[in-house]
Automatic annotation (TrEMBL):
Descriptive protein name: Transposase
Gene3D superfamilies assigned: Winged helix-like DNA-binding domain superfamily/Winged helix DNA-binding domain
Species name: Brachybacterium huguangmaarense
InterPro entries assigned to the protein according to its UniProt record, in alphabetical order: Homeodomain-like_sf, Transposase_8, WH-like_DNA-bd_sf
Length: 90
C-alpha cells in the first residue's frame, strides 16, 4: 500500500526540488534523486510525479490539472450512479 505524505511535506519537497533545479541548473530527475536521498530515501519516481503534477497545476507544463482530474472523477461517478439507478436507460 502506498505511503501517504502530508501536504506540508510534499510542499517542502517540491520547494527543495525547485531550489536545486534553479541553483544547480540540473535536470528535474537529478534534483528529485538528490532530494529523495536527503529526505530519507523517497523514490525519485514519486518526487518526479509530484513535481510534474505541480508544474501542470501551475500552468508551467501541459496536462490535466489536479482540479480537472477530480472533476472528471466526480462526473464519472455521478454518471455511473445515474445509469445504475435506471434513470438514464432507454
Amino acid at each position: 500500500m502506498p505511503q501517504k505524505y502530508s501536504p506540508e511535506f510534499k510542499a517542502r519537497a517540491l520547494q527543495l526540488i525547485e531550489e536545486r533545479v534553479r541553483a544547480e541548473q540540473c535536470s528535474g530527475w537529478v534534483a528529485c534523486t538528490a532530494v529523495g536521498e536527503a529526505l530519507g530515501g523517497i523514490s525519485p519516481h514519486t518526487l518526479r510525479n509530484w513535481w510534474k503534477q505541480d508544474r501542470i497545476d501551475h500552468g508551467e507544463a501541459p496536462g490535466v490539472t489536479t482540479a480537472e482530474a477530480e472533476e472528471i472523477t466526480r462526473l464519472r461517478r455521478e454518471n455511473r450512479l445515474f445509469t445504475n439507478e435506471g434513470v438514464a436507460r432507454v
